[in-house]
Amino acid sequence: MSGSPVTWDVMGASVRGATHIRTKQPNQDAIAWSAPAHREDCLILAVSDGHGAPRYLRSHQGSKLAVKLTLEILKEFTNDDNAIGELATLPDRVDGELPRTLVRSWQSAVRADLAAHPFTPTEQLLWSQQKHKNGNDPLRAYGATLLAALITSRYLLLLQLGDGDILIVDSAGRVGRPPIPNDPRLIANETTSLCGETAWQDMRVYFQPLTARPPALVMLATDGYSNSFADEKGFYAAAADLLEAIHTQGSHETCIQLPGWLRATSKAGSGDDISVGLAYTVHRV
Amino acid sequence: MSKLPGGALASRPLHFIWIADCSGSMSVDGKIQALNNAIREAIPHMQQVASENPNAQVMVRALAFSNGARWHISQAVNVQDFRWQDLKAEGVTDLGKALNMLADVLSPEAMPGRALPPVLVLISDGQPTDNFDAGLKALMESPWGKKAVRIAIAIGEDADHDILQRYIGHPEFKPMQANNAETLVRYIKWASTEVLKSASSPASQMLDISAATVNIPLPSVPDPATPPDTAADVW
User: Lesser CB count within 10 Å: N end or C end of chain B?
Assistant: First the structure.
């Protein structure tokens, strides 16, 4: 990204949780990113967690659609931004138009997928047993959360719908959460979701102009990761350790090791699927 | 990196709480001893289910109510170390007080955010003698109480189903009626194994504030046991 010796790189992994391995269920998470090939490019990172309850019988597909569409929509968003070129208007725009676009696009894509691939007889049976609990709209079979980051040379934009975590490590190695409002409803395995009728109202947005000292690391993780640690301090340490690994072992080695670390973490921790995306700054000479 | 990134790892806590009616009527026809026996008999099955899911750490407590309410097992104990001490029956039915005490331990301050939905199993043979409404209100205003899996077992024909239904708070799930010791054993075992197994899963679902929901898939309730041969064995 131009005008600065700092550029961004990205890596990530998504692993099937220990519980899902035991119960022969698929990984219901998904991750996708668009890495900047040139300094002018933006970085886009998205993770999604498909709901695991039996009624969400296509949530592993819902999460894949979520990350794919997010990349497309945020890419388009940055193109619009370039045309407008008014950074000051971005906070207003992200708080309204973008969440609606993301949710509506996902819901349209799900309906198209349902039309092209109706429930199989097995799915139909399962759905008929479950649908009284969540209404008759089969859209809900695809229910998933969404975490996304858009990083340009000028700003950092974070979006969150549902559970999961975003951590930021600053250039001094301090770990914290962005000032996204906490949603106290998200406990006991309940979450807001892309499949909600007015889901965009539940999307939390954080916008930050980037100065000369951008964050060293932005980490997006599905809730299987934070739920694996005994406490918040241990989870924060994970972000710091991952950045340390990138610095000391190199990004290539860290990228190779990451899936194994996440599998071991799930096995000794929450048992849930874990997806972690890491966007980190690289200082070029 | 020789160790995994981050601090200490831990399975997710799952709090399982027995809420037992110890009013004087529970001493009639051996009901309290049948309850003691049923819980004691369920323990190895409960431990087996817990051992099959190492990603949930099942912690057990017990609350007794009669003249007021008190913690029979106050510190949450790992299910593998769980032992049952017999309850005795005497006094009235202060269920409201018990629900208030439950609300206290199900507050956000007392429960880690990473916990699985708690399972609350209420067993009662009568009608509340104190302010049940206030107790239920406190329970349902606590975030974890509201999201808990609330199971109710009615013992004998004098149990107040309306009260137990309000405690469950879901129109599709009814109190289970146990009219003999064998049926009580069956329901206690179901709650401590099948419900526990379902609650141990990390499966998430959409928050839906517009409808009463149970945030785990509840397994099918077992049929009651065949009525005993003699009327003396029926409550």
Answer: N
B181-190 and B31-52 are packed helices; what angle lies between their axes, rounded to 10 degrees?
A: 30
Nearest to B21 by CA among B145, B152, B150, B133: B152
Record: contact A185-B207, CB cut-off 8 A:
yes
Q: Chain A to chain B, count of Cβ pairs less than 8 Å apart? A: 158
One-letter amino acid at A84 equals I
Q: Which of residues 155-194 of B touch A (CB under 8 A)?
A: 172
Calpha distance A279→B7 (Å, rounded) = 21
| Chain B: closest CA distance from residue A242 (Å) | 6
Asked if the model's pLDDT at residue B149 lies above 70, the reply is: yes
For residues A107-137, b (16+ Cβ closer than 10 Å) or e, as one string?
bebbeeebeeeebeeeeeebbeebeebbeee
Task: Tell me the HSE value of A272 on the side-chain side, using a 13 A CA sphere.
Answer: 32
Q: State yes or no: ipTM above 0.90.
A: yes
Asked if B48 is an interface residue toward chain A (Cβ–Cβ < 8 A), one would say no
CB-based contact A19 B4, cutoff 8 Å: no
Name the least confident of A82-91, A194-203, B127-136, B156-165.
Answer: A82-91
Q: pLDDT tens across A41-89, in order?
A: 899 999 999 999 888 999 999 999 999 999 999 999 888 765 445 566 6
Mean pLDDT of the region A202-217: 90
Q: Who among A51, A185, A188 is closest to B144 (CB)?
A: A188
Interchain proximity B147–A184, CB inside 8 Å? no
In angstroms, the separation between the Cα of residue B206 and the nearest Cα of chain A is 5
Per-residue pLDDT tens over the stretch B87-127: 999 999 999 999 999 999 999 999 989 999 999 999 999 99
Distance from CA of A214 to the nearest CA of B (A): 23
